[in-house]
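User: Reviewer 2 asked us to show a designed sequence for the structure in our supplementary figure. I'm pasting the structure tokens here. Could you produce the per-position amino acids so we can include them in the response letter?
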């Protein structure tokens, strides 16, 4: 997943379908890329960076999802410790 890219789209008020069209992608294809199921090509990254006005390296920095241990912590599930 690319949280910086999602944030930059929101910050610039650009809908996903519009940036997908600029990149020459369908909405579904863009969705698979933004969720990390398919990689963006170097060309697509350059287009996004130029269109959104942010550095490519920052836009496409991936963050690891939270560990499964955190998802099942007692504080969140209400379990007694």
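Assistant: Here is a per-position design you can include in the supplement:
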């Amino acid at each position: 997943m690319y949280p910086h890219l999602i944030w930059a789209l929101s910050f610039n008020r650009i809908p996903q379908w519009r940036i997908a069209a600029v990149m020459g992608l369908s909405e579904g294809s863009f969705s698979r890329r933004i969720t990390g199921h398919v990689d963006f090509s170097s060309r697509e990254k350059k287009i996004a960076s130029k269109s959104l006005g942010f550095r490519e390296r920052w836009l496409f920095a991936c963050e690891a999802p939270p560990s499964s241990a955190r998802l099942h912590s007692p504080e969140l599930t209400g379990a007694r410790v």
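For the response letter, you might also mention the following. Residues 3-68 form a domain with the 434 Repressor (Amino-terminal Domain) fold (CATH 1.10.260.40). Residues 42-52 form the longest helix (11 residues).
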